[in-house]
Amino acid sequence: MFSIESMTEVYIYMFITLIVLFIYLYPKNPLSPTISSLKTFFTSWKMILHFAAIAFILFLNKIELTIEESMNLKYDLTPLFYGWEGNIVYTIQNFFQNDILTIILVFFYVVVFTSLIIASFLVYLNEKDHKLFYTFCYAIMLNYGIAIPFYLFFPINEVWAHEPAGVSFLMLDVFPTFETEYRALSGLNNCFPSLHTSISVTLSLIALKSSNMKWKRIVLISAAIIIFSIFYLGIHWVIDMIGGVLLAVFAVYAAQRIADRDFKFGKRKTHYYAQNTDANETIQK
């Protein structure tokens, strides 16, 4: 039976996934997108700064668990969510539970999810769609930036960890070392909103604006599978998913507005310099 034993294996599977993804997207020359994207990225200080901002937000998300421990909150909102939902997640898990499906969904939750985030940067850079690139950057920042305060002040445990729910943590069937290897990236009570949902929906909404039909298809199908996996694996509540969808819609809307403003400002700036250059050339003549 397929299993994942460490984060090293996760990174290897991510690398293989990215290779397969680019062979499908660009069959004639799958290496070209990566080379072209990296060349574009490392020659633009603006892109490097945006990537650094994302890295900083992700760093804050990682140390959020340390901050949360020091806060020593005494309340738990999990019973409230269970009272609203009852056994919905339990019903979903038991109806669909299957060993092969478990393997597929763990792979999508752990490997494909992060692979799609990385691929998004490369695809939009390779296709010279800088507006979508920056929209994606801003949307990622907003997703994490808005989610972190909820994780700090609204502790809600994963469904499997709430005993009355009767849900199994199927992740461990495929990734038995999840708690020691992956848990540092995702707190047990960091449920609402679901970032796997919000990022997946964000990926989809932005991909819909891409001209690459293959990319749209991959992202939309993968997002649907990942969102289903959060219930099947016993991780998130339905309310977490709803919160994730709302977060994604807002993040993409706001990111588009910011990117539009940046590009309009850039065009005005270019037009201003062009006018001044023409005027100086006229004076010199």
Automatic annotation (TrEMBL):
<dbReference type="Pfam" id="PF14378">
    <property type="entry name" value="PAP2_3"/>
</dbReference>
<dbReference type="InterPro" id="IPR026841">
    <property type="entry name" value="Aur1/Ipt1"/>
</dbReference>
<keyword id="KW-0812">Transmembrane</keyword>
<feature type="transmembrane region" description="Helical">
    <location>
        <begin position="241"/>
        <end position="259"/>
    </location>
</feature>
<feature type="transmembrane region" description="Helical">
    <location>
        <begin position="6"/>
        <end position="26"/>
    </location>
</feature>
<feature type="transmembrane region" description="Helical">
    <location>
        <begin position="218"/>
        <end position="235"/>
    </location>
</feature>
<feature type="transmembrane region" description="Helical">
    <location>
        <begin position="100"/>
        <end position="125"/>
    </location>
</feature>
<protein>
    <submittedName>
        <fullName>Phosphatase PAP2 family protein</fullName>
    </submittedName>
</protein>
<dbReference type="InterPro" id="IPR036938">
    <property type="entry name" value="PAP2/HPO_sf"/>
</dbReference>
<feature type="transmembrane region" description="Helical">
    <location>
        <begin position="132"/>
        <end position="154"/>
    </location>
</feature>
<dbReference type="InterPro" id="IPR052185">
    <property type="entry name" value="IPC_Synthase-Related"/>
</dbReference>
<feature type="domain" description="Inositolphosphotransferase Aur1/Ipt1">
    <location>
        <begin position="95"/>
        <end position="253"/>
    </location>
</feature>
<feature type="transmembrane region" description="Helical">
    <location>
        <begin position="47"/>
        <end position="67"/>
    </location>
</feature>
<keyword id="KW-0472">Membrane</keyword>
<keyword id="KW-1133">Transmembrane helix</keyword>
